[in-house]
Amino acid sequence: MSQLEAIQDQPPWLPRLTAHGGPRFLQIADALQAAVADGALKPGDRLPPQRQLAAQLDVDLTTITRAYDEARRRHLLEGRGARGTYVAAPKVELAPVLDLGMNTPPPPHGVDFDDLLKQGLSQVLMRTDNDLLMTYHLGGGGHAERRAGVQWLAPMFGPLDPAQLVVCPGAQAALAASVLALTKPGDTILAEPMTYPGLRATADQFGRHLVAVAADRHGMVPELLEQACRQREPGLVYLNPTLQNPTAVTMPETRRRELAAIAQRCHVRIVEDDPYWLLADAAPPPVATFAPQQVYYISTLSKCLTPGLRVAFVLIRDPRERERFMAALRSFALMAAPLTAALATQWILDGSADGLLAGVRSEARLRHRLARDILAGRYSGAGDGLHVWLELPAYWTAAQFALAADSEGIAVTPAQAFATDGAAANAIRISLGSIKQRGHLQAGLQRLSHLLARRPESSSAAVV
């Protein structure tokens, strides 16, 4: 067959490759997946030979080989030796659980993560003495790690002194060290009524009292915070002001300034846990901008890039406070894992982290659009970030709904998991990133929508 004949005989499912659509082999694999999903390609259909497809798309043979390999990895294709490559029969899964309960970044749109990981590790191993990757390091991070931290935090703060940063093995470790450094057993920690469960676990473990300060649609209410500070003399105030977990509220700049001013007047420290700032669309400046000496600022890579990068950067301006924090951190975590920290540093400094972040942001927005379309009037997300906070109709309680969803093979998180010190909202958090395939996420959201529309079944059990 001539190249002209091949092009004229082009199947309708073939993609139109674009310069800005990501790696070409992934565009082809995505088109194959879409064609299988909408029925344009059916199980048993024979695909064109690789050379013919390369001619039709005007790409090299290696691109087609990688596309077919990726499609096989997704269980879309199967090879039958000399007979060619065929669309595979659907993979049968028995009662798969669709995880909408874990807040993790989605697979990055238009990014070959496997290739990025291999290249990153290759660069680390090539440029670093392997002995240094497998030995103890000084706590708080070396010069290269802190320089990477400065670059990571530049969108929030602009230029920073690397000496003001501490490198930690994840945000939870940073949060625990903050609590140890700033409070003593029996002290009060103030937080919003719905807050990150890791804070409650830390407070319980260390014998601190977690007390709620009421929030409105903009976050923690300033007047009530000042009142609580003067009445309770807390050890610290915990804030998660951007795409708050779980409510997805982003605190406006005015509210951030008000809370920072109160912290200064009342001489109380704020721990600003800000894992989602880089995922947000035009997020306001951090609270730490308005009260630099009062705030411990925590930014993690795990929520923006991938959970396997257990690296967080903590900005603490006061050197004495920083030493206090590092002493607390060393009591349970000497250092971030050197190999992980080296990979994070490599990715940030060579620009790979920016590309990965852009892919995560793009995929998160696509998933939010999907959730908004399916959940219609009940969607309460901001259009970005990793989760949606869904208020339930009165005929459902959050616990009932989570149990009913579980019986449908879907994991969601009820509001009780986030309650600071009392009654919880009648709502659930839906995480959009942990399901790898967008089509599976769509199916899960549709099942939740159907569940929302019907009333719970009677709790009376049959006797057998």
Automatic annotation (TrEMBL):
Q: Which domain of life is it from?
A: Bacteria
Gene Ontology molecular function = transaminase activity
Work out whether the entry's keyword set contains Membrane.
no
Pfam families from the entry?
Aminotran_1_2 (PF00155), GntR (PF00392)
Q: Does the keyword Transcription regulation apply?
A: yes
HTH gntR-type domain mapped to chain residues: 22-90
Alphabetized, the UniProt keywords read: Aminotransferase, DNA-binding, Pyridoxal phosphate, Transcription, Transcription regulation, Transferase
Q: Which family does it belong to?
A: In the C-terminal section; belongs to the class-I pyridoxal-phosphate-dependent aminotransferase family.
What's the protein name?
Answer: PLP-dependent aminotransferase family protein
- Species the sequence originates in: [Empedobacter] haloabium
